[in-house]
Amino acid sequence: DRTYLLDSADYFFAAGHNSSLGYRRDLRPSWENSNTTVCTISPLENGSVYFRAKSVGHCRVSATYLNSISNSTGNLTVVSEIDYIIVRDSPDGFGDWVGSREYVITTEHTFYAAGYNNTRGFLEDLEVVWTTSNSVSCGLIYHGNYVTFKAKALGYCQVRADYHGVLLNSTGLLHVVPKPIITVDDDGGADYPTIHEALEAAVNGTIIRIFNGTYFEHLLVNKSVVIEGLDKSNTWVNGSGYGTVFLVTANNVRITGLTIEFSSHGIFLDHVEYTNIDHNTVRWYDYGIYSNYSKRTYIEKNLVTGGSYGIVTNHSDNDAVWNNEISFNDVYGAKDYDSELSKCFNWNYLHHNKIAYYYDPDEDLRPLVLDSNIFEDNEIAILVEQSSSIHITNNTVLRGEKGISILNGSPFVGNNSIADVTYGIELTNSSSYLLGNVIGDSVNGITAFGESPIIEANIIHDSSEYALRLEDIVDASILSNDFGNGRAAISNSSLNQIQVQNSTLQLTNSSWEELDIGKNGIVEIKWWVQLRILSEDGEPISGATLKIVDSQDNVVVESVSDEEGLTPLIALAQERVGETEILNLNPYHCEIEVNGRKQRYELTVDSNQFLSLSFELPAKEQPWLLYMLVALAILASCFVPTMSIERSRYAILTVFMLFYVKLKKEDVLSQFTRGRIYGYIEANPGEHFGAIRKALSLTNGNAVYHLQVLEKQGFVVSKSDGIYKRFYPRGAVLPPNDGAPLSEIHQRILSCIHEAPSIGQKEIANLLGLRQSTLGYQLQKLVKAGLIRRERVGRRVRYYSVKSDKK
Prior knowledge:
With 807 residues, this protein is mainly beta.
């Protein structure tokens, strides 16, 4: 025997046993149930059976194998932890029992079957069978654990909840009554002169009819009433520029046919259900219509215009916003805060708003459907942030800055029509699926930055800048789109699939897994190139004019260098790939012009490159030079005899040579890089070219240029040593060519110490022509290497060769 809670389940198996061998296997028997009202069984393919406790009571389940062997369960008792139920007007055990009540015809209400345990109290709202005693007067719409009651016709009824045929509870007697009518006219002659007084006198179901006039009021609507203006164009409810005109806190309210103006909030719906706001003009407000935590309300066929926020929903569920005109709002035309409006924001006309529609939920929600709306002349038509739980479909966008803008979210965007905007669809950090959109007469069709969008079967025509522009995209797919004659460009991206037809696609610094080039499709493979224009001495040249021509003699770039000699980043094509042929666009010819002087260079593009180009500038004119040469020539003619003496001839020629040096000698070391090179050679005499370049992180060209300047000006001297070119500061004693494996400076120091044991640092420096700071550094290296030893004698330090000590 076993006991099961109501709605619980179990599995039973028929185990076959042998009298001698014991358990053999699970069998496939025939199953039977003794009480199908209480228990249900469902045989499964493996021979077992699924048991469910359907209703309170008793049953047995039996198994028969081959019509000869059978076995049965014990008595299975189904019990419920629910001891009683109550029909209430609020969920989760709140609200009141629905006793005898009056309902005005056409009103709706929600009933819940609250289940209770005698000890533990309320447990949950139950799924029950709902019935009505009079379906003509009282209609029921089932929703699982609650039911919607609708007063359909005059009369009486009761609504009953049946829990498994064991526990029952009914409402009191529900009376469906006609709607009472109260009239309001500020000119008199009606029931009341103000709407406020009419609301005070009204009961649930009252119709308040308002005649033409101006009513300066702030109203609390806490009863289920209809507030109806008879002439919207001439019936004004004025908030005097502050507060809320209609604060609605009751369910089943309808406000229609009014002009509501000059307020902080025109209409504020607070935690209400089944409320209708329709056929009104709401204008000159901070917030036009605000739905706060409402359910199943209808906002339709209103004109909401001339404020900051038009229609706002906050945590609303299944509100319907239909066929409204929303215009001239300086913040948002419509805004949804964490609302779930499944198929409920439709057929609206939004125009001349800063942002027509904005959605940025903070919670994970069911998809909101924004469908079949018209957007005209808005700065931004649709803006979605931080959300993928929205479907943007079948909308029309005309004119404005941005059509659809998605930031940090990945909603579905499909079958929208967008025209005459700066940006058709703009994605930022979005993996949206863009399908079947048509974008025409825009500056930019589709732009995307970051993440992994899928862009498929879109038609983009007449884009003045880009039909498609993607940057920093990863694992995206571009499939079956028609870009017309527009420019399609992808940079710094990796893509899964690319299909190109009837258009040209430029790929800059980008890669792909699959590339399908169809009819009239072309893909250009491009790379980033940036040039730096330098003078011969390594100084940047600003204002240099640049022109680059490809191998087909097409001018592809014309630019000017900036203060640092840099050109902008340039995208140059390596090749153009068509359906049947590949065109190589290398080499490129680059022409640089400075002050009317031109030089040409050749570039080959097959990767991203940063290139420095050296430009030979003409020597500066020196008008005083001619006069000086004439004077020197006259002076020289006076000393013709001395020209036969070699030292005199050399001295005079040296004077002449000074005037032909382009770079003043005193300025040679003022250049930063050249000064670093000279300082390094002073500290490391005899270092070869490769070591100098590597130690100072210089390019080959830069190092060669500055070493030539230093050598020409006499600051350093060079000496070839096998495959090496070694450099020394001026005044240094150059070593003999002995081929020793040590560096030349170390060979010279060791040779000096070996020839004169106990020599001091000052004497070595004088003999070798080195600075004492340079020599001290090299002596420390030799001591650490164990090639010499250092010994202090009084206040002086002496050096000895380790080799001579061993001898």
